[in-house]
Amino acid sequence: MSASLASVLALGTGYLLLLFLCALAVERGWIPSRIARHPAVYTLALGVYASAWAIYGSLELASNAGFGYLAYYLGVAGAFLLAPVLLVPIQRLSRTYQLSSLADLFAFRFRSRWVGTLVTLVSLLAVIPLLALQVQTMGDAIFLVTGAASPSLLALVFCGLIALFTILFGARHTRLHARHDTLLVTIALASAVKLGAMLALGAFALFVVFDGPADLQAWLDGPGRAAQAGVEHLDPAQWRTLLLLFFAAAFLMPHMFHITFAETLSRRTLLQAAWTLPLFLLLMALPVPLILWGAQRVGAEATGGGAAYLAFALSESWWVGALAFIAGLAAASGTMIIISLALSGMILNHLVLVAHPPVDQPDLYRWLRWLRRALIGAVILGGWLFYRTVGVHHDLTTLGLAAFIGMAQCLPGMLALLYWPGANRKGMVSGLVAGTLIWLAGLWPPLLTGLPALVLLPPGLEGLTGEPVWYIVTLVSLATNILILILVSLATRTSPGERAAAEACSVDAVIRPKRLPLEATNGEEFKHYLARALGEDVASREVDRALAALHLSPLESRPYALRRLRDRIQANLSGLMGPSVAQDIVDRYLPYRQDGGDATEDIHFVESRLEAYRTRLTGLARELDGLRRYHRRTLTRLPVGLCAFGDDGELLMWNDALSTLTGIPGESVIGARRDSLPAPWDELLGRILAEPHSHLYKQPVELEGGLRYLTLHKAELEDDDDERGGKVILIEDHSEMKWLEDELVHAARLASIGQLAAGVAHEIGNPITGISSLAQNLRYDTDDPQLLETAGQIQQLTDRVSRIVSSLVGFAHGGRHVAGQAFAPVSMATVTDEALHLIHLARSGEDVDYHNLCPPDLVVQGDAQRLLQVMINLLGNARDASEPGGRVVVDATPEGEWLLVTVTDEGHGIDERVRDHLFEPFTTTKPPGEGTGLGLPLVYSIIAEHRGQIDIDSPPPGQPCGTRISLWLPLNRQDGESPDEPDSDR
Amino acid sequence: MYVYRLMLFLVFGGYLLSPLLMSGWANPGVAWYRPFLIWGVLIALTVWLEQKRKLDER
Fold it and tell me: Which residues are listed as membrane-spanning (chain A) (predicted)?
């Protein structure tokens, strides 16, 4: 099989063009986002792990070690199976703190920019052989297909195209930590292409070279056995070591870390990858032995590249070679794109920005973007140079193992980061440096110069003599690394900052941040402070971005919110420039105030974190969390207002009842200082806090709904053995109790006056009767018409006084109607007249014009005294609502078995807001002190006693203003039967 | 959370027993696809565990 250089160039360029088109289609929205964001795309993107090693290296390993090649796939599958306990915590950390690479994570945990620099250097050294491996497979494949003398130049062309693609579609954003749909879909396409090509090659071997699975089995049991003679089964210890290396690669390799954690995907998708990625890898691994056995069946010889390229020898057909070439190119290109992207970010954040901090850059975003682009080009060029100078002299397994063993040196640090808060920077750095030096001494001299490995076996491990170098180097370097990490960490002190970061990273720990005040007092000041480091434009954009993410206003001044804003800005800057530079900038330009007292724990923040971790708690911790939630709910739903302040005056709790009473939601004030609360709460709470006594009774407070009377109680939270102090305040609304008390006093006063009036009326009655009798006698004793007229007038006036007195006595004695007592016929005209007499006694009603239009012959069944009270209340209300000179009309009309009595005024009417509550006690439209709000409820209850109905129209139909009260009362019937209920639709 | 322990057990158990996989290479009487069959069963087990985990966290 031989093809021209031009056709290979066309094939490779065509494939890369397909990637460009795919990226363009996603960017332009030609591919719907539901497809671009489908979990299958993520799984395929994770398939970036299957680099050119999976296509060619696996064949080489399978021909030497049989099923030993499966370690490459099973190690990663194992890591993803542990996603809930291993990958999800890393994802949580990387997302919370915007950590986009392994170096970011280490620099964050061990609180040192030099740790980030060290991890970057180790990653660079480890990944360069892997990058060279990708380029080498391209060069070897081109040579195999074309027989060209200088395939490296064509490989360089492909490298250039891959770099161009990465720069165009991967480095457009300054932040690494974001979901880049374009990149993910393109990598997924590359994975789909290599998977499709591998499956096609496997199917070709199984069904074309062999005659199906049975034929293959027969060949393996028969003539094929001889071909397997060269296969040496891996020693179980070596196999397990290989598994460990590939297990570590799943989350340590820069390209895997980038896809798994830096591309912000949901936790659900990551957990789903626990089985979808192993399934993808199974499909990738399945064709490998088929291709190998197929090539052996057709008698293919391993060429200069070893058994790695046996797929090209499966058939003379051009398309088989093209498939093998495209599979390799797809695998290599995907890996190179993500490796260059991830490494450029690490180099930028931990080498370039550390050496040259970006302070005072006029256009920071542009500067960062161009630096990344240059670094992407440099990384890919570095890979090509390593291939040209070193890679060409080695097989794929040697290059690949060198990379994986180098990267595994970060494994002890990573496990300590997640599971051992006691590990410290000195231990991690010592272990990593020792392990890396052993790796360099053991594998790099043979790699670079052909000299033998420099490995000194420690006492006790002499038994390893004669084992493969990679195996010895892995064991010795990792054992030394782990031992030094543990010993140095135990022997040295850990800084407080590192301890805090360890708690943040630890799987079982919850961050316990301190409550410290910041120098900047609101979002706008944040911009001002940050502008000194980032320039006004960038500072403003970063602060606005953080404010928007937290849904905060630029004028937000709550200390709690400002601390969250500071954390968010640090996380965002970390995504931009790495955690070391971000922390330096934030510590220096957004400092905490130094004048505060002892810092206490940010309880509200701790609680919110506990809520987020709830599903991860087990056993006793889960039970305790259940109890915490129960107590929290008790306080939140307490039907009495409750708030709590810390020692520093910061508000820590504001329950539901208090939110309802104040109209202020808890989320908007928790974390604020007492003096920044809206009026009147700042002053009221300040008063109780300053008060030497623990109670303030019935404090008048003007709220939106009117005057309220609040009672406050406070208690100290300090305890001898508890460092968390502060005060808790209970706020009870005693307004209704206060009004009832006032009403009771008023009613008692009225009762006294009533009794007095009845006594006075009784005393007046006797002389009036005497005057009336004397006037009667006078009429009998004289015929003088003038005297007769005078006597008649005296009698009329005394009759009038008698009626008034009798009304007063009647009203004073008018109590509740006794249930079961029969009602008597009552004339509404008479009742209205009496009510008007009494109303006239009040001087304020004299200027209102009353009209009693009730026909005297219309009689209802009822209690005259109770109905009198109804009319007095209604006429009194009408009088109070009327302007001087206004008209109040009382009318009555029979409606079937009912008498409709209406009281209509032309006053100001009733406010809509209280119209629906008029029959509830204490509802009044009158100014404070003038109305009790008990009149209409009393009317309602009396009318109900009469089985009648009451209705209010304000304004009445056909009138521009005023109010009409309509009463339906049962008409008096001769047969003594009660009428049916009046129509309820009225 | 108890599902996680089962997963840990599965992974470490698999790690210790995994060398047995290699014996299937060109071994008469052993189907060539045996390692892949075991691998497929493990994937099915993981799917089942994932469903259990979802129920556990609901």
Answer: 6-27, 39-59, 71-93, 114-135, 141-171, 183-210, 242-261, 273-295, 318-349, 370-387, 399-420, 432-457, 469-490
If contacts are CB pairs under 8 Å, which of residues 902-941 in chain A contact chain B? none
DSSP string, A554-598: TT---HHHHHHHHHHHHHHHHHHH-HHHHHHHHHHHSPBPSSS-S
The parent domain of residue B27 ranges over 2-57
Cis peptide before A362 (omega within 30 of 0): no
| CATH code of the region A5-213+236-415 | 1.20.1730.10
Residue ranges of chain A assigned to CATH 3.30.450.20: 617-733
- Give the highest mean pLDDT range of A671-675, A931-935, B52-56: A671-675
Statement: residue A202 has pLDDT above 90: yes
Q: Which residues contact A418 (CB under 8 A, 6 or more apart)?
A: A86, A89, A90, A505, A506, A507
Over residues A629-638, the mean pLDDT reads: 91
For residue A74, the chain B residues in CB contact (below 8 A) are 18, 39
Closest CA to A696 of A683, A676, A711, A715: A711
Q: How many domains does chain B have?
A: 1
Q: Residues A808-867: pLDDT tens digits?
A: 665 555 555 455 566 888 999 999 988 888 777 665 556 788 899 999 888 998 888 788
Nearest CA in chain A to B8: A82
Q: Give residue A475's identity as a one-letter amino acid code.
A: L
Interface test with A, best of B10, B16, B18, B38 (most A CBs within 10 A): B18
CATH for A814-970, options being 3.40.50.720, 3.40.50.2300, 3.30.565.10, 3.90.70.10: 3.30.565.10
pLDDT above 60: residue A109 = yes
pTM exceeds cut of 0.80: no
**CA nearest A935: which of A741, A750, A735, A702?**
A750
User: Which residues from chain B sit within 8 angstroms of residue A275, using beta carbons?
Assistant: 43, 46-47, 50
Distance of CA A941 to the CA centre of its chain: 52
Comparing alpha-carbon positions, the chain B residue that sits nearest to A88 is B4
pLDDT of residue A515: 67
Q: Which residue has the higher pLDDT, A237 or A607?
A: A237
Contact A282 B43 (CB under 8 A): yes
Q: What is the pLDDT of residues A686-713, one digit of tens each?
A: 888 888 888 888 888 888 777 888 999 9
CATH number given to A617-733: 3.30.450.20
Crossing angle of helices A559-577 and A603-613, in 10° steps, is 60
Selected residue of A233, A267, A275 to mutate for chain B interface (largest B Cβ count, 10 A)? A275
Quote the tokens at residue A374: 């240059």
A52's tokens? 């050119």
What residues contact residue A919 under an 8 Å CB cut-off, 6+ apart? A936, A937, A940, A950
